[in-house]
Amino acid sequence: MPRIPFNELKAEFKRVLMKKGCDEAKADLSAQLMTETSCDGVYSHGVNRFPRVVEYIDKGYIDLKAQPEKTESFGAFERWNGNLGLGNVNAKLAMDRAIELAREFGIGGVAMGNTNHWLRGGSYGWQAAEAGCVGICWTNTQPNMPAWGAKDRRIGNNPLILAVPREGGHVVVDIAMAQFSYGQMENKAMRGELLPVPGGYDEHGELSCDPKEISKTWRVLPIGYWKGSALAIVMDLVASVLAGGRSTYAIGKLGSDEYSLSQMYIAIDAKRIAGEDYLAAAINEVLDNLHDSVPVDPAQPVRYPGENSLAIRNANLANGIPVDDKVWEKIKSF
């Protein structure tokens, strides 16, 4: 498995996007976000996802010329149409706008409909935290998970991101409503690995750690069982209603591919509301207490959400980003 320097990987993403007709500024931003995602170790939503981005461009689901537009404004809340533009570029703009609104009102919200897969949702949590804001965002998806008690997939695994700003390392949680995202399972299957805990059901209706068997049934396990299922349903409703966009049900009616999604972006100006001193003291008090936990495995210290990303990022910046041979060859062939 080759290790590709950050700038080389970004250059390949940018080259392909421009070859497909994307303007340089937009291609550079999209490539930067995908490379940062890969550098942080989220390969499933970075380099490994890029061939599907190209596929969706070729199919016309992603319009490289499109510009998102504001359709309605309600003070601190705005509704936007993504016009099927590049998902990560639309998402960056939406969180930028939520942060601007938070600077004015203390809190800002943007609901965006008719947009595309945002790749790593955590990117926009980090973005808010870098601006000194609490960030909350989520997206709906195609129907890719059964509701609790069902066998057939009718709800989405709808990723949720929450971020808290902190000097020395932001606290960021990025979770799908399934125990494992499909991207994570694809990564494990590609490497011939099993999941650390059961992630869904096989064709015999038995809980399984084998990502290949789970992918055959689409019966992924929601986090918290019925709780994750309920949360996924409500998140879908909130995003689609406020964005005036498609629900998971309506996205499913488009076919087997995933596009024209509905998303929510919320920023809260935490530094201004809490004050920098109190914000830092309150967060560090909690994290210091967390770090004092007695670990089950002494070799595996207890970490806060997002802490491990910093270590992976630094290692990949120093040594290059690991990329699967087949994926790298496919990207270079575009």
Q: Major beta sheet, specifics?
A: 7 strands, mixed
Strand content: 15-25%
Compute the CA-based radius of gyration.
20 Å
Provide the helix percentage: 40-55%
Q: What oligomeric state is this?
A: single chain
- List segments where confidence is low: pLDDT < 50 over at least 5 consecutive residues: none
The H/E string reads EHHHEEHEHEEEEEHEEHHHEHHHEH
What is the spatial order of strands in the main beta sheet?
A: 2-3-4-12-5-8-9
Number of helices: 13
Overall residue-averaged pLDDT value? 96
Roughly how many Å apart are the termini? Answer: 20 Å
- What structural class do you assign from the helix and strand content? alpha+beta
Strand tally: 13
Q: Which term fits the overall shape?
A: globular
List the helices and strands and how they pair.
Blueprint: E1 3-4, H1 6-19, H2 24-39, H3 50-59, E2 69-74, E3 77-81, H4 87-105, E4 107-115, H5 122-130, E5 134-139, E6 145-146, E7 153-155, E8 160-164, E9 171-175, H6 182-190, E10 200-201, E11 207-208, H7 211-217, H8 226-243, H9 248-252, E12 261-268, H10 270-274, H11 276-291, H12 307-319, E13 321-322, H13 325-333
Parallel strand pairs: 3-4
Antiparallel strand pairs: 1-13, 2-3, 4-12, 5-8, 5-12, 6-7, 8-9, 10-11
